[in-house]
Amino acid sequence: MPGENIVGLDLGSSSVRALLFDRNFTQYEGLGFQKKYEIITSPDGAVELDPNVVFDAACECLDSLHQQMIQRGLRAAGIGISTFWHSFLGISEDDKPTTAIIHLFDTRSAKQVDELTHTFDPSWVHAITGCVLHTSYWPAKLLWLRQNKPDLFETTSRWVSPGEYLLLKVAGQGAESTSMVSATGFWDQRKNDYCEELLMACAVRTDQLAPVESLDTPCRTLEPPFAARWPLFSGIPWYPAYGDGACNSIGSGCATPEQFALMVGTSGAMRVVIKQNTVTIPSGIWCYRVNRERFILGGAVSNGGEVYRWATRILRLPDNAEEKIAERQPGVHGLTMLPYLAGERSPYWRPELRAMITGMSLSTTAVDILQACLESVSLRFKQIYTLLTRPFAAPASLVASGGALLKSRTWLQMMTDALARPITECLEPEASSRGAAMIAAEQMGVLASLEEVSVRLGTTLRPKPERTEAYERLLERDGRLFDTFYGATSPLAPARSISGAGRTD
Fold first, then answer.
1. Share of the chain above pLDDT 90, in %
2. Confidence band (pLDDT; 50, 70, 90) for 284?
3. Which H or E element spans position 96?
4. Fewer CB atoms < 10 Å away: N or C end of the chain?
5. At 500, is the pLDDT very low, low, confident or very high (cuts 50, 70, 90)?
6. Among the four given CATH numbers 3.30.420.40, 3.40.50.720, 3.20.20.80, 3.40.50.1820, the one describing domain 2-244
7. Are 351 and 344 spatial neighbours (Cβ–Cβ below 8 Å)?
8. Mean pLDDT in residue range 237-243
9. How far apart are CA 264 and CA 191, in angstroms?
10. Strand partners for 159
11. Taking all residues of the chain, what is their mean pLDDT, rounded to a whole number?
12. How far is residue 265's CA from residue 377's CA, in Å, rounded to a whole number?
């Protein structure tokens, strides 16, 4: 039925996409629009977006999709939104931005991470919030704003996600999801409420955040200008934005512990979705929510496809570089690389880490360095996989998505060999938008369960045993180099239970 179509709106770090999905969550061919924009960076570690640029891009995408739907006589039953986890902006009492959108990669709050680490037991924070004390999350960033921009901090009435700001503008009311608040670093996963101790440390009040009692409630009425602008989208539910990683996993068909999602774009992540009431969070792994019923656990690396791009940008590689690498055994170049060009998140959560290559000689070639780069990123995912398979059984399948990984069959085979598990390609072109549409459809009752939706899959690659053994040796060698230069503390310890005391003295 045409009325069972769902709009998927993806507010990303570099662009917005608006697409339409049918009742089987297949994207309508020829429909949709994408608008790109640029992140704003500065030498002090700032990584920001202009909230009105993102908002205008979303409106332009919805304008285009709305017109296309009119031309084809299509309607929609609801709108699902995906947006980037962890990022936020401040707004004033009259709902005007007081800050830019502060992106998760903004590192100006490194000093505040240290302050919070001396105030709280980091293992306690991780165990109850599923987040770590890190520059990626809200607590350190808000503490930085309080200390460095006190006038701005004091004039801010509320702190909102990019998705909540969008709904505030088009519907006249902010609406937020459990998925988004669960990844702020303030959310107590045990109580499904904000952590009072962390809020107090950052001088943030609960009335400055999304109200707990209204989480996940859709907006059904648009402001008059937008109702006139988009009559097809007026009177249908607009669901509060879900986290992009959750949407990507669901859209890739990874809605149960039997399927792990593996995504490598500019950065990368491995995730597992579970539907249960409580969870014990492994050390080194984050834990957020897909929705009220489902947790999502995983590891995120800051150095994914960007390492590949770095290597191809600075090295004089032959046209057949990947073909040469595909014929080689792992580690034959004799190099050891730690790929931390942009610090690292999982499993070490250390933004100060930097990359290094050892073992170079006069015979080292550009192809050797490229191979070491790709192997090193694959080994980071092996570490995350090890952590995820401590509390969960090995998955029946690993489903791969992300342009960086799927464009390179050689790298995909490396990843397969390193993880010692078959990996299957996901053929869904826009998994995040699709996942947002699916989660919204389940919430509105159009879809009985996320688990029942099929996904288009491609080729399954299988590990080569002799190469799997070589990757085990490479990981040991990597570990020795890491311990020598960065310290021998390891987060690969057994998981802590969600319990324990709070402050340290």
1. 87
2. confident
3. none
4. C
5. very low
6. 3.30.420.40
7. yes
8. 98
9. 33
10. 90
11. 93
12. 12
**Distances 504 to 137, 141, 189, 190 between C-alpha atoms, Å:** 21, 21, 21, 20
Q: Quote the CA–CA distance of 85 and 77 in Å, as a whole number.
A: 25
pLDDT digits (tens, 9 = 90+) for 361-415: 999 999 999 999 999 999 999 999 999 998 888 999 899 998 899 999 999 999 9
Q: In the numeric block, which tokens belong to residue 264?
A: 């490598």
Structural domain 253-304+347-427+464-486, CATH architecture = 2-Layer Sandwich (3.30)
What is the DSSP annotation of 386-405?
A: HHHTTTSPPPSEEEEE-HHH
Q: Where are the beta strands (DSSP E) in 206-253?
A: 242-243
Q: How confident is the model at residue 503 (pLDDT cuts 50, 70, 90)?
A: very low
Q: Are strands 242-243 and 15-21 parallel, antiparallel or unpaired?
A: unpaired
Phi, psi of 341 (to 5 degrees): -65, -30
Distance CA 502, CA 279 (A): 19
CA distance 274 to 293: 9
- Running DSSP on this structure, what letter comes out for residue 213? G
As given in the structure block, the two tokens for residue 394 are 């090995």
What's the one-letter identity of residue 68?
Answer: Q
pLDDT at 488 over 80: no
Q: Which of 150, 152, 132, 130 is nearest to 140 (CA)?
A: 132
Domain ranges of the chain: 2-244, 253-304+347-427+464-486
Question: Are 2-244 and 253-304+347-427+464-486 equal in CATH topology?
Answer: yes
Task: Provide the b/e sequence for 136-160 (b: ≥16 CB within 10 Å).
Answer: bbbbbbbbbbbeeeeeebeebebbb
Cα 394 to Cα 258: distance, rounded to the nearest angstrom: 8
- Chain segment 50-80, per-residue pLDDT in tens: 999 999 999 999 999 999 999 999 999 999 9
